Each structure stands twice: as structure tokens, then as C-alpha cells.
Amino acid sequence: MRGEKTIFNVQPISGTSAGGRNTRRRRVGLLALVLGALLLLVTACGGSGGGSGGDTGGKGKQSAGKKVDENTPSQAVVTVAPKDGADAVATSGALKVTADQGKLTAVTVQDSKGNPVAGKIATTGTSWEPLGHLPAATKFKVHAVAKDAKGRESAKDTTFTTLVPQNTFIGQYTPENGATVGVGMPVSIRFTRGITHPEAVKNAIKVTAEPAVPVEGHWFGNDRLDFRPEKYWAAGTKVTLKLNLDGVEGRPGVYGKQIKTVKFTVGRSQVSTVDAKTHQMTVVRDGSVFKKIPITTGKPGYETWSGQMVISERLEVTRMNGETVGYGGEYDIKDVPHAQRLTDSGTFIHGNYWGGGAFGNYNASHGCVGLRDVRGGSDKNAPSAWFFDHSMVGDVVVVKNTHDKTVDPANGLNGWNMSWSEWTK
């Protein structure tokens, strides 16, 4: 009995009895349950066995996040001043685009013809303003875009129309478009109304040169603005004047109405020096002496201005009357030949057929520079005729060794009598 009992304890491991088979089945079943539970646990924890399912779940969450952002309005708020549809808008200081809770990424302003308005977004990204004034009586459309912190865009579209001026001004300029001029010719602009906002007007006018050289403007009074380089123009220089006065408020309630581009060319260089002491004029062309001419200048009490003067007008024949320059009835010559204006006040370099032996010997005029000529100016070999034929508007005439003061820079096109520091002050 003991032996059987011992055999009975060992047999379940390898025996074939019914009891042994049942015990084995129970153990196998229990093992299957344990393995199944472990498999469920691993799957639930997103293990490698459930990789595709885990990826799918992740993508689903990202897609859901994007969908929410796309459907959530941008927090950025774009504001345009003036308000949409506004009329009679000021041409300066009224247009501004701002962004709150975001930054501007694009601003476009165009007139009805599609012409853009130049402007700049501030470094902070929160505002935009035009770089200059706007034309008057013009309709504009504005398109502005801003992004909030999450990159969501917000846009604003508006329109407005600038004011229609009741009072206007223009600039009358010299030289004319297409002209060829001497090296001393400034750009001179005279305004039809006195200007009380000089910086606004000056900033609307640009003068450029090719080859490039700095060109600066200087006001003479409140109705004249001249531009020149530091030294005379180089021969062959191409100069461009751009007037962008439309919409510029030159004085309260008075607006410019002019947009114009003017181009002219600087010809050969000619600078003539009049020496009142030696009674000679030396003409220098392109750096070399071209001709020497005997002259006469203002007699004592009527001395000729000294300084650098620019020929501003050329007349084959003109009348000179002492009454027009404050000399009463001292003279009235109706047929002065080959007259070239040097000052607004009446100084000319001109032909003289009545001077006798003064040329090259003594000063006998009432302040002008006289060159020998014949009545009617018919002698082309006369010194005055030669000089007239070899001159052009913008040529420089320098007068020295007189007993009079230097010509006022505003008297004619004679700003060269100011130093560069004075000119640009």
C-alpha cells in the first residue's frame, strides 16, 4: 500500500490516469488565462503588439487639433484709419493701419488705377504708415493682413477718398524740359502761392543727377526753391527734376496740383571771368582759355556787382531804360544788341555800340558788362556777337576787382555765391 501510494504521488507528472489528465488540462487552461491577461495588458499599454493602433490614435489627436485651430478665429484685430468709405480725407497724416493682438504681415494701398502707395510696416509689426503724402481727389482701397501668436490670419479691406482742394498752387520751374544748359544752371522753382510749410513742399521735390552727385535745395523767401550741387555740374551731366506736389499742403488749405518730370542736360563747360581792373574778359571752355575779349564795366558810382553770376536769359535785342532800375532818365536805349541777363535787378552782359574807346581801357557803364558791337548787331565778327553765339543759359560769368559788393545770391540764379554750408543750412 505504501508503494502504491508513492507511485500515485509520482504518476501525475508522467502518468496516464484520468486524474492526471484532468490536472494537466487545468494547468494548461490556467496558463492560457495568464498569457491572455498579459497580452491584453501589453496591448492596453500601447506596446509593440499594438503599434498600428497607437499610430492611428496619435494621428487622430493631431488632426483634431488642427481642425480646432482652423475653425478658431484669429485673435489679431486690424484697424484702418480713416474709416471705410470716408470722404474728404486729408492727404497727410490721416492714413494709418494698426494691428492689435497680432502683427501686420502685408499692407497694400492702391488708387483706382492700381498705382501703389509706398509705405512701411513698423519694426514692431503693429502699425503701417505711408512714406509720403497722398494725391488729392483720389479714391484708394486698402488691404491689410495680420497674424496672431498662433499664426492665424485676419484681414481688413476698406476704401476712402481724399479731399478736393478749393485752393491750389503749382511750381514754375527752370530750365525747361529737354534743355541743354551751362554748368552753372541751378534748378529754380517759383511757386504761385507763398509757402508756409516749406519742408512738406521740399520733400515732395527730388533732383537727381547722372553721374550721381549730392544735390540740395535752398529757399529764397517763401516762394522760391533752388537746387544745386556743391560745385558746378560736370559737363555732360543728365539732371532729372521730379515734382510730386499733388496733395501737398503748401499753406493752410492750399494744396499742390502738379506731378511733373523734367529732364535736362548740362553741355560743355564755359566760365568767363571779367576783370574790372584790367578791363578784360577771359573765356575758359572745358578748362582751357578759349578767347580774351576787351570789356567795360560800371563807372564810379555805378560799379558792377562782383561775384559768380549765371546767364538766365538771352535776347538778340532789348530795350534798356534807366527808370526800370532806379536811374531815372539817365539813359533809354531801345536797341541794345546781344543782351544776356546776369541778375533779376537788371545786370546784363551785352553789346555796346556807343561806348567809343572804353573797351579794354576804362569803365563807362551804369553797372552792366559791355562788349563792343555795332548798331543792330549785324556784325558777326564783333566781340559781343561772338560771345553771344558761343554762350548758353546756365553759363557762368565771374566778375572780380570791382569796388562793389558781391551780388545777392537771390538776385538771379546766383546761389553759387553762398558756401555749401550756408546753402544746406
Automatic annotation (TrEMBL):
GO terms for molecular function: acyltransferase activity; peptidoglycan L,D-transpeptidase activity. It comes from the Bacteria. InterPro entries: Big_10, LD-transpeptidase, LD_TPept_cat_dom, Transpep_catalytic_dom. Pathway: Glycan biosynthesis; Cell wall biogenesis; peptidoglycan biosynthesis. It holds the Pfam family YkuD. Keywords: Acyltransferase, Cell membrane, Cell shape, Cell wall biogenesis/degradation, Lipoprotein, Membrane, Palmitate, Peptidoglycan synthesis, Signal, Transferase. One of its GO terms (cellular component) is extracellular region. GO terms for biological process: cell wall organization; peptidoglycan-protein cross-linking; regulation of cell shape. Coiled coil: none annotated. The active site is at H350, C368. Residues 8-20 have a biased composition (Polar residues). Residues 49-60 have a biased composition (Gly residues). This is L,D-transpeptidase family protein. The lineage of its organism: Bacteria, Bacillati, Actinomycetota, Actinomycetes, Kitasatosporales.
